[in-house]
Design goal:
The structure holds 2 protein chains of 2 kinds.
Chain A: H1 2-17, E1 22-26, E2 56-67, E3 73-95, E4 98-103, E5 112-114, E6 117-136, H2 138-141, E7 147-154, E8 157-164, E9 168-177, H3 179-194, E10 203-217, E11 221-228, E12 235-237, E13 240-242, E14 245-252, E15 259-265, E16 271-278, H4 282-285, H5 293-300, H6 304-325, E17 337-345, H7 354-388
Parallel strand pairs in A: 2-17
Antiparallel strand pairs in A: 1-10, 2-3, 3-6, 4-6, 5-6, 7-8, 8-15, 9-10, 11-14, 11-16, 12-15, 13-14, 16-17
Helix pairs in contact in A: 3-5, 3-6
Chain B: H1 2-27, E1 35-43, H2 49-68, E2 72-74, E3 77-87, H3 92-104, E4 107-112, H4 117-126, E5 131-133, E6 150-152, H5 157-168, E7 175-180, H6 183-196, E8 203-209, H7 217-225, E9 230-234, H8 237-249, E10 256-258, H9 265-270, H10 275-278, E11 282-286, H11 295-308, E12 311-316, E13 322-325, H12 328-347, H13 352-358, E14 363-365, E15 371-373, E16 387-393, E17 396-399, E18 415-416
Parallel strand pairs in B: 1-3, 1-4, 4-5, 5-6, 7-8, 7-9, 9-10, 10-11
Antiparallel strand pairs in B: 2-3, 11-16, 12-13, 13-18, 14-15, 16-17
Classes of the chains: A alpha+beta, B alpha/beta.
Chain lengths: ~400, ~425
């Protein structure tokens, strides 16, 4: 946010100095993250990072989130797979609040663990696969997951709310821009988004003074999930029932609601499995009635401020999506990275809060005392019954 | 008895108070007097003098450098590093005694070649003192889970064995896996056996050789008859020399591969009368230069030689130049002292437990320019990727060209004239 605001303000300052002069304003692009995390921060002092220019890394990440019956994340595990190409020595660090880790399937090297860091060091002979299975501290990692779940059971009714958690407030700019240039930039942005490329750096020319405006940005997130009930539910809303299963799918964001609600009557307490991944804002980037924004802008006389606003917000959405694709950072900051988030009902019981555990202990003690007293009464009664029989 | 004890207790209270006062004064930065950190070096001075000397000198050189810069700063005070030498005679029993003495002397860390580590680490562990191996690559000696105070900066047998499998199997050789019956040989045999276990067709035979035996002709003949087209000999330098002698004296020019002991000066000294027998001998070890080039290592070597003189092998090449041994193992002990200093700085303390914990969280630049450090998952300072192969020619060695890593490494100067 600071970077974006900085660019905007720098532009605004320039404009104030010479009101009539045109200025180039930096647009959101890959690496110019909108918030501090994700990627998860590197904890502790980082060793010297060594990654020669000839080595490139593509990253794949699968995050497994164990959720409690109420939807809270209780465990976070990550499988991070880095594929290196190029020859040379490397020493890289990936920020991760890991409590334990081990080499993942196919890894050709052993990962190292330090407080808040996963370390990789060695020599790449031309191609090398580095894979790690890491257990992350939920407290430090769960706040940066892209989806938040709230599950409630109220008598026979069960409800699940899935919310896009990537939304945040940003500052965009507005000003007089050239229609053709903005349309062309939108086409470039769309092409890169559809090709799955990270956004290249870009500038837009603003004539005269620019001003800022607040915007709300969220990375579009595609979610697909299944609730498996012990018995077939009686009725379902917001999902599709297939026997004991209720499936649901939606894209949260990109002009659609940021939340999804599934309501179920009957069936008991379900097990959940949900897969989430960021997707490009294809709806917002689709030119109206034309093959390109350049053509659309020419034919339909779309207002330039609207075009500029769309350019900025879609680019911010793409940058935001890129952040969540780099939940664990790719050490090659220019390299591609994709992440898949899998939420599944956890067998682990969520830890009790300390106050609750205190009262819980008291309750347990009372139950035990009552059980012992009851046993004594029953045993006594049985003895009397036996003696009199 | 009771009155005596009471009297002793009465006396102890003011004494303890005085001691605390003295300790407090000593720790004060206002006193200006530097503190002392004892680093114990337990090596086989009388069992394996070359290794002992190079490890000791590497550690002392690092200590001198640190002390020359004012020492190590921690807790508002400067500390000088004092190296204390112990001779373990290659004996585990002696190593135990040395460890006890080192702990009593207040050692903050112990550097060892690896002798007796199975018996010494629990003693040091009780006092939260790290022990670092800078020579023995034996598998099982280092394990962060079961031996949290044991570290190593030296190529591991495991790494060497697997790198050999990776290097030799594609060559379609029929390899005779030879190991001597020393602990070093048997450790290596286990690792090399595991490394080749998935490719049994690459193995012509496995054979144990008697360590110290000078005539290994029967065993080498047996390997030849088994169809071996390469020998991978894992053992003491004397065994390597005997293998080469047996093969070459019979006119069998079979390629011979060895662990780091193949580069031990003893091998070349033994074969000084037949330098051509050494030609082609390939050994695996930890690389001495990183991608940054030869600069850092040569700077270290230059400082080492100007302080202690070059480690002469005791042979000459065909040009009559004296052959010297690059200070590989000195580099490892040197690096450890710098990692220890980084840990003390990170912990901001010279408290043993805190330093031990901090050792897993720091890295420094090693003498060869590479990064050196440990972590919670691994206490190995030399990763498997750092194992390279070098081949002898004319009593000096050069990295091989048919291995991806080795091909990137430069040739280090190994001769001195005059």
């Amino acid at each position: 946010m600071r970077r974006t605001l900085g660019a905007v303000l720098a532009g605004a300052a320039l404009a104030a100095a010479s009101p009539a002069a045109a200025e180039q304003v930096v647009l959101p692009s890959a690496g110019r993250y909108l918030s501090q995390s994700p990627p998860l921060a590197v904890g502790g002092p980082s060793p010297r990072v060594e990654l020669p220019l000839q080595i490139h890394i593509s990253a794949g990440l699968r995050v497994l989130v164990g959720v409690a019956p109420d939807g809270r994340p209780v465990s976070v595990q990550a499988r991070h797979r880095l594929v290196m190409t190029g020859r040379g020595d490397y020493q890289v660090v990936v920020g991760a609040p890991a409590t334990s880790l081990r080499a993942g399937p196919g890894s050709e090297s052993q990962p190292g663990l330090r407080t808040g860091q996963i370390l990789w060091a060695g020599f790449s002979p031309g191609r090398k696969v580095l894979a790690v299975d890491a257990t992350l501290r939920p407290v430090a990692s769960a706040p940066f997951l892209p989806v938040r779940l709230i599950a409630r059971r109220d008598g026979e009714r069960y409800s699940l709310t899935v919310t896009n958690a990537t939304a945040l407030s940003q500052v965009a700019f507005a000003g007089r821009a050239k229609r053709a240039e903005v349309a062309s930039l939108l086409d470039d942005t769309r092409r890169q988004a559809l090709a799955g490329l990270r956004l290249a750096q870009a500038f837009v020319t603003i004539d005269g003074p620019s001003r800022t405006r607040p915007v709300r940005i969220a990375a579009p997130v595609r979610v697909e999930g299944v609730l498996r009930f012990p018995a077939a539910p009686e009725s379902v809303s917001g999902g599709t029932q297939n026997g004991r299963d209720v499936s649901f799918a939606a894209t949260l964001g990109d002009g659609r609601p940021l939340s999804l609600h599934v309501g179920v009557r009957g069936g008991g307490i379900p097990l959940l499995r949900l897969v989430a991944r960021t997707v490009p804002p294809t709806r917002a980037l689709t030119p109206p009635g034309s093959a390109s924004w350049t053509v659309a802008a020419r034919r339909r006389r779309i207002r330039v401020p609207a075009l500029l606003a769309r350019l900025e917000t879609t680019r911010m959405q793409l940058v935001r999506a890129d952040q969540f694709d780099r939940f664990l950072e790719n050490p090659d900051t220019q390299g591609p990275s994709r992440a898949l988030y899998v939420y599944a009902s956890s067998a682990v019981r969520p830890p009790r809060a300390s106050a609750a555990s205190g009262s819980g202990s008291g309750s347990d003690a009372l139950v035990i005392a009552l059980a012992i007293a009851g046993s004594v009464v029953v045993a006594g009664a049985a003895l009397v019954f036996w003696a009199n029989s | 008895m009771t009155p005596n004890l009471t009297a002793v207790r009465r006396l102890m209270v003011p004494l303890a108070g005085l001691a605390l006062l003295a300790a407090g004064c000593g720790g004060s930065s206002s006193s200006g007097a530097p503190g002392k950190i004892v680093l114990a070096v337990d090596v086989p001075v009388t069992g394996s003098p070359y290794i002992a000397q190079t490890i000791r000198q590497g550690a002392e050189l690092a200590a001198d450098n640190l002390n020359g810069g004012g020492g190590i700063r921690a807790d508002g005070r400067n500390y000088r590093v004092s190296v204390k030498l112990y001779d373990n005679h290659l004996s585990a029993r002696q190593a135990v005694q040395d460890t006890r003495r080192a702990l009593d002397a207040g050692a903050l860390a112990i550097v060892t070649d690896g002798t007796g580590i199975d018996a010494t680490w629990p003693l040091a562990h009780q006092d939260h003192v790290p022990i670092t191996i800078t020579y023995d690559g034996g598998t099982g000696l280092v394990d962060p889970a079961t031996r949290p105070n044991v570290f190593r900066i030296a190529p591991t047998n495991h790494g060497i064995a697997f790198r050999y499998a990776e290097y030799l199997i594609p060559k379609k050789l029929k390899v005779a896996l030879l190991s001597d019956d020393s602990a070093y040989g048997q450790d290596g045999a286990a690792d090399i056996g595991r490394a080749f276990s998935e490719n049994p067709k690459s193995v012509a035979l496995k054979l144990t050789l008697p360590a110290g035996e000078t005539d290994l002709s029967p065993q080498i003949l047996r390997a030849k008859r088994a169809g071996a087209t390469a020998l991978l000999a894992w053992g003491q330098p004397s065994t390597i020399a005997a293998v080469l002698t047996a093969a070459r004296s019979r006119g069998w020019n079979v390629p011979v591969y060895t662990p780091p002991t193949g580069a031990d000066p003893f091998v070349r000294q033994q074969l000084a009368d037949h330098p051509e027998w050494v030609d082609g001998l390939t050994f695996a070890s930890g690389r001495m230069t990183a991608e940054v080039g030869t600069g850092p290592f040569l700077a270290f070597q230059s400082q080492y030689e100007s302080t202690y003189g070059a480690d002469k092998v005791g042979v000459k090449n065909s040009q009559g130049a004296a052959v010297i041994q690059p200070p590989e193992f000195a580099m490892y002990s040197n690096d450890f002292v710098h990692v220890l200093a980084a840990a003390i700085t990170h912990a901001n303390s010279v408290e043993r437990a805190k330093v031990l914990e901090a050792l897993e969280q720091v890295s420094t630049q090693g003498a060869n320019g590479d990064s050196r450090g440990f972590n919670e998952q691994s206490h190995e300072g030399v990763v498997d990727d750092d194992v390279y192969f070098a081949r002898f020619h004319d009593m000096t060695f050069a990295p091989v060209k048919d291995d991806a890593l080795s091909a990137t490494l430069p040739v280090l100067p190994q001769t001195r004239t005059g």
